[in-house]
């Protein structure tokens, strides 16, 4: 061990000369004037929500002080064919599974009108709601995430104002109590909200980061009472379905797993497109189980741990985590043309179930990044 003192001395010197990133220095504190901004002075805006995988129109950097962002969510109990011959009575926010993803800035207020629709009031076709519903925003603070203040019976609506104190992508879901909580969540009663830092996203060096497109993937596990022939049992309404579905749920094994509600939703029904050179924000939520997002043929250039933007993003990941009742957010700049699969890298869930989406990327192919040196031929040939 006669070299030990020299090695030790070197180790002691190294930190001083290596440009090691300082995780603490990456953080910026919220402006105290923004934090203490008076609700009475906040301007009201209305955000028109859209069905995922798309996001409502939004700025990426706040151009003024905190606002009150009005949003409207209508709860609809509806029967949907989620796979051939497989019917589920869903609980859907604004007629989509997952529900729409509002986009606000940190320190804005969200002013929600939550509607438990009936056929008389519904904007989205038919609704024959039977049950009380509510909403728990993981991004909010207090009263069960708002769940305690938002229980509405069919034909009722309720208003909830809350402040977005934390930045990141956060799950919301229905949570009306007891076994109703998982029942409403695994029939589609969940979504996410994105709370952007006011200064916008930053990469791991602290440089501002803008995206050209954003897609929101909501992964849904289902527990469908099935017949022996591979079709599902059918029920008259959301309430009638519940006892049999709870039995399947108790087994903890999903019968179906889909991105955005139904099999083929993002591989056949909706065509997602991007171009080489574009930076795409990939948002993912799973309200009831973990997931492991992966972009086949690409990466997460920057991945925010647990989808929370005030943590320094990780660089160049292959697969990343979504915790149960949590989210992920990653950006990737496409470098090659082609069709990319974005999926849960529990590959059984991706391919034997349907936890996947395709992104069709147009543009140039760069041989310097990848090319065949020779195409398949007999061994030793050529
Ligand atoms: Cu509900």
Description:
- The protein has 382 residues and is of the alpha+beta class.
- It has two domains: 40-198, Immunoglobulin-like; 215-362, Cupredoxins -  blue copper proteins (Immunoglobulin-like), CATH 2.60.40.420.
- Helices cover 14% and strands 33% of the residues.
- The chain has seven helices and 21 strands.
- It has helices at 4-17, 23-26, 32-35, 180-185, 238-250, 265-269, 347-352; strands at 43-46, 67-83, 86-93, 103-105, 109-116, 136-137, 157-163, 168-173, 190-196, 201-202, 208-209, 213-222, 256-259, 272-275, 279-286, 293-295, 300-304, 314-317, 326-333, 338-344, 356-362.
- The chain has a six-stranded mixed beta sheet, with no helix packed on it.
- It is flat and about 75 Å long.
- It starts with a helix and ends in a 20-residue tail after the last strand.
- Copper (II) ion binds at residues 91, 133, 174, 176, 184, 189.
CATH superfamily of the largest domain: Cupredoxins -  blue copper proteins
- Could you tell me the CATH topology label of the largest domain: Immunoglobulin-like
Radius of gyration: 23 Å
By CATH reckoning, the class of the largest domain would read Mainly Beta
Main pleated-sheet profile: 6 strands, mixed
Give me the secondary-structure category.
alpha+beta
Integer tally of domains? 2
CATH architecture of the largest domain: Sandwich
Ions, cofactors and other ligands present here are: copper (II) ion
Element-by-element helix/strand order: HHHEEEEEEEEHEEEEHEHEEEEEEEHE
Strand line-up across the major sheet: 13-12-15-19-17-18
- How much helicity do the residues have? 10-25%
Distance between the termini: 56 Å
Mean pLDDT: 93
- Low-confidence runs of at least 5 consecutive residues: 1-19
Tally the beta strands: 21
Beta-strand percent range:
25-35%
């Amino acid at each position: 061990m006669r070299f030990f003192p020299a090695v030790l001395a070197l180790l002691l010197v190294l930190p001083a000369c290596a440009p090691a990133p300082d995780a603490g220095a990456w953080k910026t504190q919220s402006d105290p004037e923004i934090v203490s901004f008076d609700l009475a002075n906040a301007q009201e805006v209305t955000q028109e929500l859209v069905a995922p995988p798309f996001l409502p129109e939004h700025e990426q950097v706040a151009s003024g002080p905190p606002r009150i962002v009005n949003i409207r969510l209508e709860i609809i109990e509806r029967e949907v064919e989620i796979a051939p011959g497989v019917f589920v009575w869903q609980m859907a926010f604004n007629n989509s599974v997952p529900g729409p993803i509002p986009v606000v800035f940190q320190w804005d207020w969200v002013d929600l009108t939550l509607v438990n629709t009936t056929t008389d009031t519904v904007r989205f076709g038919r609704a024959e709601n039977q049950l009380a519903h509510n909403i728990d925003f993981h991004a909010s603070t207090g009263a069960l995430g708002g769940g305690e203040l938002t229980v509405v019976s069919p034909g009722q609506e309720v208003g909830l104002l809350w402040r977005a104190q934390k930045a990141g992508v956060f799950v919301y879901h229905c949570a009306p109590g007891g076994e109703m909580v998982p029942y409403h969540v695994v029939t589609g009663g969940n979504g996410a909200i994105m709370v952007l830092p006011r200064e916008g996203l930053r990469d791991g060096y602290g440089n501002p980061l803008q995206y050209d497109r954003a897609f929101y993937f909501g992964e849904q596990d289902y527990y469908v009472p099935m017949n022996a022939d591979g079709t599902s049992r059918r029920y008259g309404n959301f309430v009638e379905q519940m006892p049999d579905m709870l039995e399947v749920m108790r087994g903890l094994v999903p019968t179906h797993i889909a991105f955005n509600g139904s099999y083929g939703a993002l591989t056949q029904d909706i065509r997602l497109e991007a171009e080489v050179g574009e930076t795409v924000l990939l948002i993912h939520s799973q309200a009831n189980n973990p997931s492991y997002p992966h972009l086949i043929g690409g990466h997460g250039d920057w991945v925010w741990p647990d989808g929370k933007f005030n943590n320094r993003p990780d660089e160049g990941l292959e697969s990343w985590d979504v915790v149960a009742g949590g989210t992920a957010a990653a950006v990737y700049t496409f470098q090659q043309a082609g069709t990319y699969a974005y999926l849960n890298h529990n590959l059984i869930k991706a391919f034997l179930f349907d936890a996947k989406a395709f992104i069709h990327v147009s543009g140039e192919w760069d041989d310097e990044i990848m090319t065949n040196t020779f195409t398949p031929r007999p061994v030793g040939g050529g």
